Amino acid sequence: MSGTGEVGALSDAALAAHLAEVAGRILLQVRESGLFDAKALGKAGDQTANQFLCHALRAARGNDGLLSEEEKDNDDRLAKSRVWIVDPVDGTREYGEARVDWAVHVGMAVDGAPVIGAVALPGLDGGIVLRSDQPRVVPPAPDRLRMVVSRTRPAKETVEVAARLGAELVPMGSAGAKAMAVILGQADIYLHSGGQYEWDSMAPAAVALAHGLHASRIDGSSLVYNQADVYLPDLLICRKEHAGHILDLIAGMARQD
Q1: 22 CB neighbour count, 10 Å cutoff
Q2: Where are the domains of the chain?
Q3: Nearest partner of 82 among 105, 58, 52, 61, judged by Cα
Q4: Which of 4, 49, 226, 233 has a 20 to 30 A CA-CA distance from 215?
């Protein structure tokens, strides 16, 4: 694609996927430059990818709102129906350590709902982008369920639910990588209660919903984006047939506390 006219002609979903894929390539080039140690690399990658994504979105969709983890927030977005929400590097630590479990999130909320999403996983062999407009067939669950958890600080509630389900814990880095692991058949449940922000879950939730998965808060309520307070601390992504039981377990644990 040679110019903004061609990019502007893309559908919203195709634009999200294109930007996530290009940002992923940029991040790999920043890392491969060899100019940064692991700590500095995360900051350099975040800022470089953020500049690309924000400039590109303003050029292609200048009338829409924009919220990025790495960009100063502008309250003007609150009056917009269509708001792009991006995380230039989800899993900065994993990116800096040259692991595969990091992601780029590009998505759009419409009237607060996660409608459009693309999650790039550039660290995987060849890199892949999972997108809301091109759903894949989600592999069937095995006899023993698998739950992705933080590889550094798994939440107490998550570990307890996994124990009650008899689920295997699968440590993993970024939120996007965890959510996409369910789609890719590497896991069956992504339950998070340790604190997140809108950019951590918006694109993954849109992609998960488009693939026929359940995506909600851990009390079962809907995920709502483009809020004045962008703190959105919890998330459940899983197959629909497992959602009711998991939500009941969480509610029961809350009553016991």
Answers
A1: 18
A2: 4-131, 146-256
A3: 61
A4: 49
State in words which class domain 146-256 has.
alpha beta
Q: Residue 28 — pLDDT band, cuts 50, 70, 90?
A: very high
The DSSP element (H or E) to which 191 belongs, if any, is strand 189-192
95: exposed, middle or buried (Cβ count in 10 Å: 0-12, 13-18, 19+): buried
Q: How far apart are CA 107 and CA 171, in angstroms?
A: 25
Distances (CA, A) of 134 to 21, 27, 77, 210: 15, 24, 27, 8
Q: What is the pLDDT of residues 72-118, one digit of tens each?
A: 998 999 999 999 999 999 999 999 899 999 999 999 999 999 999 99
Provide the pLDDT for residue 231: 97
Beta strands 103-110 and 146-150: pairing type?
Answer: unpaired
Query: How far apart, in whole angstroms, are the C-alpha atoms of residue 67 and residue 105?
Result: 12
d(CA 98, CA 14): 27
Q: What is the CATH number of domain 4-131?
A: 3.30.540.10
**Reported pTM:** 0.93
Both tokens assigned to 60: 């292609």
